[in-house]
Specification:
Helix content is about 65%, strand content about 10%. The chain is mainly alpha-helical. Helix 3 crosses helix 5. About 10% of the residues have low confidence.
Length: about 190
């Protein structure tokens, strides 16, 4: 089923994740450092600079600018990771578990972006919307709205019943106590 998932991400270089390998290995022998260092131990700013340099090199090969190339990479990651997550969930889970859905999307996208030295600074996942010709989410929303109204009506009626029953019990207790006191008074006289 097709649907629209409007999102707005603010993505930029991860300037807080610098020098992850600076303290781990003393760079005495550059060849040894390169051979032993795993790919994820690099400096995020360096990764981003390499991505930017690569995108500027591409500028001469096609008509896209360097920033457009980076934007295309980020969009591809966001769309791909969202598709992967969505394919493992039911439509009801996507609609009803939106906080969990958002957490999973952000975690997956952040992991992929970190390979390029990028970080998500802000993410806004808006309301899921139906694709043209579909009214699935509109129907689910209407169902949830009607369910909430009906539950509220039941809750109000329950609260009124509790109040009415409680009031009647207290009035009955009061009348019984008064009658008991009056009877004891009569017996005493």
């Amino acid at each position: 089923m097709q649907f629209l998932l409007p999102v707005v991400f603010t993505v930029g270089p991860d300037v807080n994740s610098r020098g992850a390998n600076a303290d781990a290995v003393a760079p005495n022998d550059l060849n040894e450092l390169v051979a032993e260092a795993p790919a994820d131990r690099g400096d995020s700013l360096t990764k981003f600079a390499m991505l930017l340099a690569d995108s500027n090199d591409r500028r001469g090969k096609d008509d896209t600018t360097g920033s457009q190339h980076i934007e295309d990479i980020v969009k591809g990651i966001i769309e791909g990771e969202t598709r992967v997550l969505v394919s493992s969930m039911t439509m009801e889970e996507i609609f009803t578990c939106r906080d969990e859905f958002k957490r999973h999307i952000l975690a997956n996208i952040a992991t992929e972006l970190s390979q390029f030295g990028l970080k998500i600074y802000n993410a806004n996942i808006k309301e899921l919307r139906d694709a043209p010709g579909s009214n699935y989410f509109a129907s689910l929303s209407k169902k949830a709205h009607e369910g909430a109204i009906n539950q509220a009506r039941v809750d109000v009626a329950s609260a009124q019943a509790i109040g009415s029953i409680g009031e009647a019990k207290k009035v009955g207790e009061q009348e019984r106590e008064l009658a008991k006191i009056q009877a004891e008074t009569q017996v005493s006289k």
